[in-house]
Each structure stands twice: as structure tokens, then as C-alpha cells.
């Protein structure tokens, strides 16, 4: 197996981390380190009609597939480009009608199997790492993850048996584990979910909680840009997880999902933990250690409930925003849950505590869905400054919050605040996405047209 390689980068053995990517030349902040087209990808069903199924362009007036009437395309060229993958899903959707409901992971794996059937050479997505080299960590997967994999395998057979030749069950188990551990979520400028994909060369990068690079998406291409200066010989690090939380929470998430313990400077020094977990200092009686421990436990439990809901319930979307609704509860009930949780946690935590910020973010999402623009603005204003402190420089989480706030201000005729917030978003996006990215141009146009 001979890899083509990427200019400015090389694959190497990273001490204590296994395979990794290091720089062979200097990169300045904002430089494109490398780009990687998706090996395989799927658009989430919730965004059909708003994005092209093939190139992920966001535009109005897309044309739909005449057969399934579910997939939408920019033009005939995009439809033809997608047909080798879409034809399998198109036939299955027509056959099952409203009962067609495989998970996004199942859809992605089906496309990988279809692609592997015809490929003999490495693709432009595999210049440093092939998909077949993905780690599966099968020996570390617990019973719950094993059961989820078996459920996905059963769904794959159910929905695609007439349209796909399957490898052995053992190979399927490994493939699903590989995708779950190495797959990526494609997101827009506000971090709304657009789809799922595999980018082998990007997956080769190791994790750091203080990354020197960031991954963003231009259609179905992943772009890796420097967010710190990188010198020749330095390893290039991405972040696998949301970096808002404390060292303990990040460690737990990385061990559960990626099966390693991070030893980056942020994790060894824990330099931001005091600010992230700050409690009220001027209470009439300081909370005892056990009270704080119980409140942290409560906060983690409610965060996990939201996370689980995100996996199992539909995401309801408006033009720019999404919110997860528990079961059949109306949004007003969910907002009440958020507010009650904030009141309870606020008896010990300050507003800039990351658990408070998480719940404010959920409340803001509900307000957006309910079109309670003033309520959403109130929460956004409380969130954005602490985000700027807790997250690393050029964080998309910070940029997306400025975008949400800026668009809210503009809608509420608060132009001065709106322009200021949108410009702060652009300052981050210029580095994270690159100055020529369509998302940057769209935000710039929003400023100019108001």
C-alpha cells in the first residue's frame, strides 16, 4: 500500500499516541494545513430540501429526485454525481415508503460498503491513512455499544438486503465500530448538524484539549486550518470533543468514546478548571464539599438526559436554529425544566460555571424554537462572554454564539449590537473557515444589507 502524501504534512509515530500527523513546514494562524474530501457521506434527512444531497450547497430552488422525491440537487450534474450512491437508497426508500428509517450511521455504512465494492486503489481521502486502517477498539467496547452495533447491523440487513451485498457479520461489526470511533459530523456555521462522513486523513490526527488546528467543512470537504503557529516537526492536533467542560468531564468523555486518556498541557495543568467550576463565594454559609459534589452529579445527569435525547429524538429545525424536544413534551415544558434546573444549580454555581452555561444554551435553543426572540437574546448575552474565556482561541462554539446573537439583534432592530456581534463572528470565521468560505460571505452580506 503506497500513500500519496500531503504537502506540508507527514504521517509519523507519535510517542505514546500511536499514529499521528506532523508538520514539515511552517503554518501561520489561519493557514490551510490540508483539505480532505469525504470518503463517504450522507446528508441528514432533516436538511433535505435545503441542501444539495451531493455537494451540500445551501440554496433555494433545488430540484428533487423524480423517483423517490426525497433527495434534492443543485442541477443535473449534481444528481448524476450522486447517483452511484443514491440509487441504492432511492430504491430502498421507494420500497419502504414511510417505514424507511435507518439511522444516519447505517446509511453511511451502506454507502461505504457500496464504495468499497468498486474501489481497488486508495482515494484522495486516503493520502496518509486508509479507511481499512481505522482503529475499531473492539476489545474495549462495552455491552451497550455492542448491542447498538448489532441493532445497526440488523437495520442494515433489513433496509438494504435487496440492494447491497454484505460482508461477513464479523467484518460488519468491525466496520460499524470503526465508523463510530472515526466518523465526523458535518456542521454549518452555527454548528447545526448537516450530515455524517468519514475523512480518513483527518481521522489520523490525534486529540488535544489545546489544539493547534481546527476542522471545518466546505461542502463535503473537510478543511484543516492552523489556530496556533505550527513549526516543522510539531504534531498537528485537532479536538475530538466539546472543550467547554472541566478536565474530569473531558477525560471521562474521551475514555468512553475514544478509549484513551489525554495528557495535553490543558489536562495536566487543569489551568481553566477553577473558572469553569466556580461557585458562589459570598453566600451566607459556604456550601460544603458534599453539597457541591451532589450538585455536580445533578448537573451531569441532566446534561446526559439532553445528550441521550439528541440521539433518539428528532431535531426540530427552523432556518438557522435547532432544538431537541424530549418525547412529546411541549417546548414550554422543556423551557420550564431548563429554568428550574438553572434555579437549583444557581444556588451554588455562578452564572459562568460551565454547567449553568450548558443549561442556558439548552434554554436558548427552546426559546429560538418558540420564536421567543427576547428570551433567546437574554440567554445568549449571558453565554457569549464566558464562552470566550472557557474555549480556546478561534473556537467555532464562540463564533456560532456571536452569529446567533447577531442575527437576533438584527431581527429585533438592534443594528448596532447586531453588526458588532456579527463582526466578532467573522473575525473568528476568517481563521477557522478561511476568508473565501461561502459562510463568511453570507455573514458579510447580512451586515451590508441591514
UniProtKB/TrEMBL annotation:
PROSITE patterns: SET, ZF_MYND_1, ZF_MYND_2. One of its GO terms (biological process) is methylation. GO terms for cellular component: cytosol; nucleus. Keywords: Chromatin regulator, Cytoplasm, Metal-binding, Methyltransferase, Nucleus, S-adenosyl-L-methionine, Transcription, Transcription regulation, Transferase, Zinc, Zinc-finger. It comes from the Eukaryota. SUPFAM superfamilies: SET domain (SSF82199), TPR-like (SSF48452). The lineage of its organism: Eukaryota, Metazoa, Chordata, Craniata, Vertebrata. GO terms for molecular function: histone H3K4 trimethyltransferase activity; zinc ion binding. This is [histone H3]-lysine(4) N-trimethyltransferase. Residues 52-90 form the MYND-type domain. Its EC number is 2.1.1.354. Residues 7-241 form the SET domain. Its main location: cytoplasm. It is found in: Cytoplasm, Cytosol; Nucleus. Protein-lysine N-methyltransferase that methylates both histones and non-histone proteins, including p53/TP53 and RB1. Specifically trimethylates histone H3 'Lys-4' (H3K4me3) in vivo. The activity requires interaction with HSP90alpha. Shows even higher methyltransferase activity on p53/TP53. Monomethylates 'Lys-370' of p53/TP53, leading to decreased DNA-binding activity and subsequent transcriptional regulation activity of p53/TP53. Monomethylates RB1 at 'Lys-860'. InterPro entries: H3K4_H4K5_MeTrfase, SET_dom, SET_dom_sf, TPR-like_helical_dom_sf, Znf_MYND. Transmembrane segments: none annotated. It catalyses: L-lysyl-[protein] + S-adenosyl-L-methionine = N(6)-methyl-L-lysyl-[protein] + S-adenosyl-L-homocysteine + H(+); L-lysyl(4)-[histone H3] + 3 S-adenosyl-L-methionine = N(6),N(6),N(6)-trimethyl-L-lysyl(4)-[histone H3] + 3 S-adenosyl-L-homocysteine + 3 H(+). Pfam families: SET, zf-MYND.
